[in-house]
Amino acid sequence: MLPIHEQISEALRSRIRSGELPVGSRLPPESTLMEEFGVARGTVRRALRTLNEQGIVQTLQGKGTYIRSGRPEPSIAQTLVGLSESLSYSEKSLTTTVLTQEVVPVSAYPEFPTSVDPAEKLLYLDRIRYLDNVPVARLRNWVRLQLAPGIESTDFVTTALFTALEACVRGRVASGRRTFEAVLADGDIAESLEISTIVPLLFLKQVTYLDDGDVVECSDVWMDSQHVTVAMNLVR
Amino acid sequence: MLPIHEQISEALRSRIRSGELPVGSRLPPESTLMEEFGVARGTVRRALRTLNEQGIVQTLQGKGTYIRSGRPEPSIAQTLVGLSESLSYSEKSLTTTVLTQEVVPVSAYPEFPTSVDPAEKLLYLDRIRYLDNVPVARLRNWVRLQLAPGIESTDFVTTALFTALEACVRGRVASGRRTFEAVLADGDIAESLEISTIVPLLFLKQVTYLDDGDVVECSDVWMDSQHVTVAMNLVR
DNA sequence: CAGTGGTCTAGACCACCGG
DNA sequence: CGGTGGTCTAGACCACTGC
């Protein structure tokens, strides 16, 4: 049983998908939606907030709520997905090499959030991603085995980390936080991406949370922005 | 006169910045904040929603609202805001130097989307942004004067481009698309940011759209990621 | 169990938009 | 001006958390 506001936002999404509410047109005003769904205004507004956050509609004060045009292009930076999930929208072939896959103590990754018991074990993954056999990204991941038991025996050549995570984790993979920096490659990274150490790289640092707020995974990713573009769609 | 919920979120941000509410600690429960600020619960929740969206706190059902780790980084990447709008959440002072402000033909910026009449005029802006007098970003913007008449006479030392845009534009500033790359600074950029040409920079390219889909502005921004971090919050 | 946030109601007043 | 969304109140009940 979903909350009422989610049922309403899904009902409206469905009408938009079907074309019953065409792109560019105005949604019924909140007062009408209140009557139609038999709810209070706050509930209608909660549903419209979701659609605004998803970029499906746009609400303008004094005017109304309008259906936005077109599907936004896939972008790495919008929702929490793994790198392979976002790269797979391109037409190029995606392959992975696993350099290291081993169980290590939490202390092996000093930046892991301090709230974690130092006696816990992590799965450490070190991989290279190729697009059409050109190396484009070096990925290092640390996963808490306590929260994703069994993930250490996954074959990461054929399975994406995110897929494995969602299969092994008890709760739900819910949110994340990414930061971007520009860095120069050190020798090891440069060699694996087949570039020189004076090529600037996009460096992405990520922390992934379960729905209860527990940190389940940390990543360091270096990307060659000559080959991989980080793009995002924004709404006002 | 700001809405009450914004005053509350700013008050809480200020307490977090000052260290009165330390990182990792729990905010007072909503009931306490209601009493303290003398408002209804909905208003407190509206303020906390803003802080969650900005990545400053994280709210967990049944547990409370917690202050997230790390300095409150400008979350430049979540919604469409100008650079100053995102940087102004940090505790540092933000200043701007205008290097160039002039009206140029569309042909001056060859990358401007092709749909624009080449006879149109653009406002060309070239600026440097400082945080606590340290140069952190170099910004070049091209704005279609036809869509934002009068913007060319704005004083951009005191006014942010986004503020001026929203004041001059007929429609609404509605959406945008940003891409990130890592680049090395060329001589001019390096000099303005007081760095050497082998320091890697985050290079942000942006196109801004009005609600009717017209391109109103293009930007090229170089940021020194040693001083400005691009952070974003993601949901599954 | 008490405390917390998530949802929902039924009102109110205001600011903005268009004709 | 009427219609729209933005803000705000004062309640209510529920689900989840931790003890």
Q: Report the strand count of chain A.
A: 9
Main sheet properties of chain A: 6 strands, antiparallel
Give the count of structural domains of chain A.
2
**CATH architecture grouping of the largest domain in chain A:** 3-Layer(aba) Sandwich
State the share of residues found in helices of chain A, binned by percent. 10-25%
Shape of chain A: globular
Average predicted confidence as pLDDT of chain A: 85
Round the Cα radius of gyration of chain A to an integer and report it. 21 Å
The CATH homologous superfamily of the largest domain in chain A: Chorismate lyase-like
Order of helices and strands of chain A: HHHEEHEEEHEHEEE
Low-confidence stretches of chain A: 71-77
Q: Indicate the structural class of chain A.
A: alpha+beta
- The CATH class name of the largest domain in chain A reads Alpha Beta
Oligomer: homodimer
Order of neighbouring strands in the sheet with most strands of chain A:
3-4-5-8-7-6
> What is the CA–CA distance across the termini of chain A?
32 Å
Please give the count of helices of chain A. 6
How large is the share of residues in beta strands of chain A? 25-35%
Q: Most extensive interface, residues per chain? A: A-B, 45 and 45 residues
CATH fold topology of the largest domain in chain A: Chorismate lyase
